[in-house]
Amino acid sequence: MSRGALSFRAVRKVYDPEGKAVLALDGVDLDIAPGEFCAIVGPSGCGKTTLLNAVAGFETLTAGAIQLDGRTIATPDASAAPGEDRIVVFQNGALFPWRSVMWNITCGPVMQGRMSEREAREHGLKLLARVGLKGCEDKYPNDLSGGQKRRVEIVRALINDPAVLLLDEPFRALDALTKSVMQEYLLELLVQFPKTVFFITHDLEEALFLGDKVVVFTSRPGRIKEVVSVDIPKPRSHEVLTSPRFLELKAALSAVVHTEAMRAFEAGEKEMAR
Ligand SMILES: Nc1ncnc2c1ncn2[C@@H]1O[C@H](COP(=O)(O)OP(=O)(O)OP(=O)(O)O)[C@@H](O)[C@H]1O
């Protein structure tokens, strides 16, 4: 893969609601290689979504810079508008319920004039078949299960052929079984359609199962505490979850995250006591 290199340099973000400054991110330096799956974990409120939003173009920076393939996409002075090179899949989904699955998938490339309706439909049908949704193209989102909706959303993102996929806890609302199936679907799709992935999760097992690396953030202000390289070969199936190496990585990751979660909790208690 030749595109999708993300680099973060000294990224800082201060929110200033009603003059009470909230330092969300402070000095984040990170490189994500083209085609790399980077899972982001860290305590609640440490700035994970803020960082994702800055890449997506929804949030400005207070200091620092983010580059995509050498092109600066965010600085304090400017941020590149959201575009089809960086697509977000949200945890609560964002399908239009009154439109068919096919419409939801193809509206982006068709409206932007990048594909004819026929081309988009053909491509959409192919992608739906790859995620086990053959025959669902004329259904409406509310006719689908949570897992099926999530697959439609991922197909909708992939049809745009983005350089970077940004996923903010996409499987959070799913039951454990559906979630594990979705994780395998995602890995399989990425073999067929390689993308750089920025994936936020609170689930350490999910981070290790999917990630080439797992970035652990400190409690707020978010800084990078540790980067864990997941040296388990891909393709991975759920059998790896019980392998000695997986369990070893999980124990180490869990210890780091737990320390930070405790810090975040104590900081929250102090703030409440003020
Ligand atoms: N628009 C905003 N205005 C003011 N403060 C904000 C705003 N958005 C986020 N924050 C604060 O910035 C910090 C980081 O928020 P963010 O949502 O990025 O954290 P997070 O790590 O994604 O949290 P979670 O894991 O709970 O989703 C939090 O303290 C949050 O309250």
From TrEMBL:
UniProt xrefs under InterPro entries: AAA+_ATPase, ABC_transporter-like_ATP-bd, ABC_transporter-like_CS, ABC_transporter_ATP-bind, P-loop_NTPase
PROSITE patterns: ABC_TRANSPORTER_1, ABC_TRANSPORTER_2
SUPFAM superfamilies reported in the protein's UniProt record: P-loop containing nucleoside triphosphate hydrolases (SSF52540)
UniProt-listed CDD domains: ABC_NrtD_SsuB_transporters (cd03293)
GO molecular function: ATP binding; ATP hydrolysis activity
One of the Pfam families matching this protein, by short name: ABC_tran
Gene3D superfamilies, per the entry: P-loop containing nucleotide triphosphate hydrolases (3.40.50.300)
Domain ABC transporter residue range list: 6-244
Record-stated family: Belongs to the ABC transporter superfamily.
Protein name from the UniProt record: ABC transporter ATP-binding protein
UniProt keywords, alphabetically: ATP-binding, Nucleotide-binding, Transport
Record bears the keyword RNA-binding: no
Highest taxon of the lineage: Bacteria
